[in-house]
Automatic annotation (TrEMBL):
It comes from the Eukaryota. One of its GO terms (molecular function) is zinc ion binding. This is DUF1907 domain-containing protein. It is found in: Nucleus. Signal peptide: none annotated. Residues 21-297 form the DUF1907 domain. Keywords: Hydrolase, Metal-binding, Nucleus, Zinc. InterPro entries: C11orf54_DUF1907. Monomer. The keyword tRNA-binding does not apply. GO terms for cellular component: nucleus. It comes from Halocaridina rubra (Hawaiian red shrimp).
């Protein structure tokens, strides 16, 4: 399958400058916050347990498919092999993390995907999915090594997975209604304006709980507005500790992008991040890198703006 690929250069400010911008943004929304430039810790080790040691080497974002593949009418034939997507972003051996929809032919139903894999010769697959089970609760599953597909959409951060300098983010005790990721993104948007800055990485909910959704099986009737979507989705309050895989870009660059998207999982839970529900208790830590390029892959021809929260 040959996928359409559009590509744009992003603004790549020095990490130290981005750290300053993000720290001042976080301080507007959290009682305690700091952002510094550090050597990336080995992310294969606990508490992160990802498939590559770091977020460095040719960092880039990919926005694959999109919500229009899910609604108003589901296009079940929209299946992507993440190893092919790594090739599409010119990193055939790359480390890919991100948020998307799980492979329904394997899972049996629609699901949330926490993408975490190394493509190519060094291949290793740490992808998880979360689905709604028959009892109406959430259920976490690790995908088998050979199941490397996603469906419908994926927001991915790809790199060579090397160690190197990254942004280390810490935030504690939320003081307004802005969630962690939106706070980071808006801080970049306010400072950089028309210049688009993209980030990808991982954060942990260390204390507190988070409101996350899990998509149930495909809707029987078309979803045509945000109210329909919110009635269809299943929302849960999930406990720390959770590890999230996260992408954000300060603004769209005329590519019909989803500008922020984070999925995460804990011991028995997983889903799409909305916000923490425990502002006084919440504590986050994360590592991000600045993306050099934005790839738009298999962009839907007919689009709309609902279902993107
Ligand atoms: Zn999602």
């Amino acid at each position: 399958m040959s996928l359409s690929v559009e590509k744009k250069q992003l603004h790549v400010p020095p990490l130290e400058e981005v750290a300053t911008v993000l720290q001042s943004a976080l301080k507007n929304s959290f009682a305690e916050a700091s952002v510094s430039v550090v050597e990336c810790p080995d992310l294969t080790k606990p508490p992160y347990g990802l498939e590559a040691v770091g977020l460095c080497g040719s960092p880039r974002l990919g926005d694959v498919g999109g919500v229009p593949n899910l609604m108003p009418v589901v296009q079940k034939d929209k299946l992507y092999d993440i190893r092919d997507l790594a090739k599409s972003v010119d990193l055939p051996d790359g480390f890919v993390i991100g948020a998307g929809a799980g492979p329904h032919p394997h899972v049996g139903v629609n699901s949330e995907l926490m993408a975490n894999l190394v493509a190519g010769d060094r291949a290793s697959n740490g992808c998880h999915i979360a689905k709604v089970n028959d009892a109406g609760s959430y259920q976490l599953m690790k995908l088998p090594p050979t199941e490397t597909r996603c469906a419908l959409m994926l927001n991915m951060f790809a790199s060579e997975g090397q160690s190197g300098k990254v942004l280390h983010i810490k935030a504690k005790k939320r003081t307004n209604d802005t969630n962690l990721v939106t706070c980071l993104r808006k801080g970049l948007e306010e400072f950089y304006g028309e210049k688009a800055v993209g980030l990808g990485g991982t954060f942990r909910l260390m204390q507190g709980r988070a409101k996350c959704h899990v998509m149930p099986d495909f809707p029987k009737a078309p979803l045509t507005c945000d109210a329909d979507v919110n009635k269809w989705l299943k929302f849960y309050d999930m406990p720390a500790p959770m590890v999230f895989l996260s992408t954000l870009i300060s603004k769209d660059v005329d590519l019909d992008l989803r500008i922020e998207h984070s999925h995460g999982y804990g011991k028995d839970c997983g889903g799409h991040y909305h916000y923490d529900t425990t502002p006084d208790a919440v504590e986050y830590e994360g590592y991000y890198n600045v993306a050099e390029l934005m790839y738009r892959i298999d962009r839907p021809i007919v689009t709309h703006s609902f279902g993107r929260n």
